[in-house]
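Subject: Interface between my chains keeps coming out wrong

I've been trying for a while to get a sensible model of this assembly. When I model each chain on its own everything looks fine, but I need the whole thing in one frame so I can look at the contacts. Pasting all components below, labels as-is. Any help appreciated, I'm running out of ideas.
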Amino acid sequence: MSKLRDPKVILSAEEMPTQWYNIMADMPNLPAPGINPGTLEPLGPEALQAIFPMELIKQEVTQERFVEIPDEVQELYRLWRPAPLMRAYRLEKALDTPAKIFYKYEGTNPTGSHKLNTSIPQAYYNKQAGIKRLATETGAGQWGSALSLACSFFGLECMVYMVKVSYHQKPYRRSFMELFGAQVAASPSNLTEAGRRALEEDPDSLGSLGLAISEAVEDAASRDDTNYALGSVLNHVILHQTVIGLESKKQLEKVDEYPDVVIGCCGGGSNFSGISFPFLADKFGGRKIRAVAVEPAACPTLTKGVFAYDFGDTAKLTPILKMYTLGHDFMPPGIHAGGLRYHGASPLVSQLYHDGTIETVAYTQNEVFEAAVTFARTEGIVPAPESAHAVKGAFAEALAAKEAGEERTILFSLSGHGYFDFASYDAYLGGKLEDIAYSSASVQESLKKLPSIK
Amino acid sequence: MSKLRDPKVILSAEEMPTQWYNIMADMPNLPAPGINPGTLEPLGPEALQAIFPMELIKQEVTQERFVEIPDEVQELYRLWRPAPLMRAYRLEKALDTPAKIFYKYEGTNPTGSHKLNTSIPQAYYNKQAGIKRLATETGAGQWGSALSLACSFFGLECMVYMVKVSYHQKPYRRSFMELFGAQVAASPSNLTEAGRRALEEDPDSLGSLGLAISEAVEDAASRDDTNYALGSVLNHVILHQTVIGLESKKQLEKVDEYPDVVIGCCGGGSNFSGISFPFLADKFGGRKIRAVAVEPAACPTLTKGVFAYDFGDTAKLTPILKMYTLGHDFMPPGIHAGGLRYHGASPLVSQLYHDGTIETVAYTQNEVFEAAVTFARTEGIVPAPESAHAVKGAFAEALAAKEAGEERTILFSLSGHGYFDFASYDAYLGGKLEDIAYSSASVQESLKKLPSIK
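Reply #2:
Try treating it as a single job with all components included. I did that and got this:
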């Protein structure tokens, strides 16, 4: 038998996780309760029932350490899971680092990112609850694609409000959703009150994620057969994504490794949580491990924001959550990592950062793309611009290990591929990418509009 | 342990093939020798040495049954191999067929198709031979992408002549190659004699694959540091692709299955050969198995062509090969499966078809895309338009099994994904796809220009 170097760590079907991990069972301080935007009182489950099925509401609040993954969901996960865990031998050599670099690659599934890990169970629980149709928003299109495919698997209708500027700039993401039977509307649309109001104010509005959320929530709340689905931020979404870290742990065990540091890019927080939370379980048990959330310098929610109650959307329709925020009115510069352009962060991630459990770092576009190109040329995979932030984070750790002369083990999440993002790589390679920083003044302005909650 | 259905068949590193399979050791009639286009005499190895390294020339003619895969190539294969072998449970249910359908998915690698299986060994052997630079042509961009990545792995320069119409229509394929450090020129270009001549005749020429081949061959022949690389047709290319079928055989063995029929789409023939030749080895040994090559009705080389000596390119620079051909001047209609628009077919595939060892079938665009959409909605993967032909072939076999009331086992090669082909799906879903048939009259005209070889 040959003893060739193999970068992949394989799991058998029997070794696949059968439960998701719920960090609320272990974290020292739970997130503050959500607030009803209408009453400004703590949010009860009944307020959520208009747009979510009961099983997902239960998952939103449960403090059980493990939640069973339904058989039907496990079977669909197995269309592409376990996701590859790779030892980046060629990258290590290129960086001339004593560090061992592992990456968990979530881009092999049909939608090209980690989002399918939660869209499948969300569609499943809605189907079980008798729902016929799901409504959602999408910006760059990753989440809309993932929900479209999941709805197609379960025979649900899918209504996607796609931010108008993306609708026109990324026609193939729209095609992807339509291929899977979804109805895609450019937001603001004529289909909702919120959309019509926006069009009245500005017929040429390019839309925003906040507005698209408002349209999708209104759609779901106004129809009995329809629920709403969200692709990040909420506890149940993050619960589903822990399959990433749970698999990674088992894969690393098989090669007798344990990471010194776990790295993920962080927008709403579901990818970072997915890769890191199962390891934080060990940290709460006393094991030494670091977790680093990597943000864009243009939208440094954790790194530069405040920890406060805020709305999740510009139209103030969503529950008010205690989180790090740059203010719900903050408009981040138009960087290429669209999935990281969110003013807030998951309450779970926010609480952990507030408690000092996790670290954050922020990078500008050019240094992120520079790392992505080196990664592509050595490992062969073109990272999504979002995922490229984690690549850059891993580079920094690998070079720190080299300076310290230490053999550290680094694990990062390569949350998606960049096949749909060549316009961004073109801009980078052509020297046309700007290192736009966030505007501190506009954050200060935006933070004045935080809701006042006791 | 749960007994959930798992569609994937996993191979361990130790079970990976370490040799390629060479069908020339087993086939009853070898292909006729190639002819030198200059002298019209049989082609000697010396004529090939101007553009190929000796190891590849040896592989072109060897009759050894197995050829060792170099360790460096095996290690790079392992970045994504073994490619998934999937049981299409959800598709079987949708087709309501008693057939078991398996597909081998070659789209998980960074370039998204099976082409990387041969670009890596080609770059390796050229590097070993001291070559610094490879030149090639590309149409839709799959092959150029695969060679660019392989050159990047081995530190070779890569020069790609990309058919001008694709260069402008598929800018992201160009970006992909540039990201991996390749130089990409729109063909016809000013860089070669053949290109300049074409531009003189028609400054607005959109180019053709035949012309791009002429440019790449001229580039390679005129520089000592440069060789040429071809992505299909030749024996050594097909040898490398047998890794697809060799893995599939081992994977099927693990679930105690053996196919009644093996299906691949067929342009130049490397994908069809890759999946089917290792099974044909058994057929030569007396085992009952069918192999079906699926062609587009717009370019039905095997189905409707003649078995004769012909040039591989329009400029008549390449060796003259005995193969099924529609004539080197035949211009197929502009269908969306660009990779299947080739007037000829591999001499190995041609000989096997001539001998009755394999079968062929041809389908039109709309029926192919209809099958692709059903496949996408059930299995979740969007097939490349080329690969969709194999999907349609598998549908036909599955429905035949249903009519016969027989439980047949079907294996097909899903040679690549369609992430770069949403314009085609858009056209199909919008009802804008034409079922263009090939023109029998233009084939007759083109066949008049076959070279006359004794």
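Reply #3:
Confirming on my end. The mean pLDDT of chain A is 94.
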